[in-house]
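Researcher: Structure prediction, please.
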Amino acid sequence: MSNAPTSPNSRRRWLALAAVLALIFIAALVWFSRQPAPGAASAAAPADEVAAKPSMTVTVTQPSRETLSLSLDANGNVSAWQEASVGAEVSGLRLAQVNVNVGDVVRKGQVLAVFASDSARAEMLQSEASAVQAEASYLNAKADADRARSIQDTGALSASQVAQYLTQEKVAKAQWEAAKAVLGATQIRLGNTSVKAPDDGVISARSATVGAVVGSGQELFRLVRQSRMEWRAEVTASEVGRIEVGQRAQVTMATGASVEGKVRAISPSANEQTRNILVYVDLPRHKDLKSGTFARGRFAIGQSEALTLPTPAIVVRDGSNFVFVVDEAGKASAIKVQTGRRVGERVEILSGLKGDERVAVQGAGFLNEGDLVKVVQ
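Model: Predicted structure follows.
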């Protein structure tokens, strides 16, 4: 059985039908591709609702005007108020005993060191004997002179003999006075074998060594008189006019401890190299005060009104200070501000705010520009 050949008309009909079916299929694909996925419409509505909800809860406050103290900051070193140099007043003697060390608190008149006193004591005994001998010679010469004066008018003695007795009396008296002076010097030398503290204070340096033979005037100890320390603040010539004697200063030491001092004096001249002027501030006794250490301080120089905010309201970003102002709709906007003095938990606002804004406090550090927030009391 043979196949009948396909006619040209039949073939054209089949091709036209296939083209129509292809167009319908392509149109269906385009239509379905433009339709939203199942559940897309239902998901869009909750997303919009979530975006409209506040991102977090914050507290707000308004800037307040307060009276803050004006201050002047300065740096300087802690130094001894006065240092006494305690040295040897005798020479050629051996140090037999050293009683104190660096850091010891001493009282005026306390024995700090003792020299070997054998030779000084022997010199004093010899001087005592010489003084006694000179006294005896003087008394003998005085007795002769008294007899000569009593009979000089009788003619028993010539005028020259009377003058001789009177001269011998004067010479003997002078020799006795000299012997007493020598005795006093040896007594002082013996007394100087004990080195005593010239004032109350604390030992800041010691060079005395047992067994050493020292010369007169050689320093053995250094003493911080009355244990008093001072802060020598350096201020510029333009700032020194704002400081007065008797003014208070808060001084913070390297350890972080803080003490209140009082301005004792202001240097009349500036340092030729730094051009700064020294301000001397008396400090109370404190265990952390060490001579030669660095300290920073602040002088109270008056008061002024200032616009302030709580410290948590200040947000530091990229090296600048910002606050977030919340409008009535709950939208947070970042505003750059310039800060000044800090007193306790308050910060002075120099510029950026008028004073009637609502500023975020608690939670401000987590906010971004344009965030919606919920304000709570």
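Model: The first helix runs from residue 8 to 34.
Researcher: Thanks, that helps.
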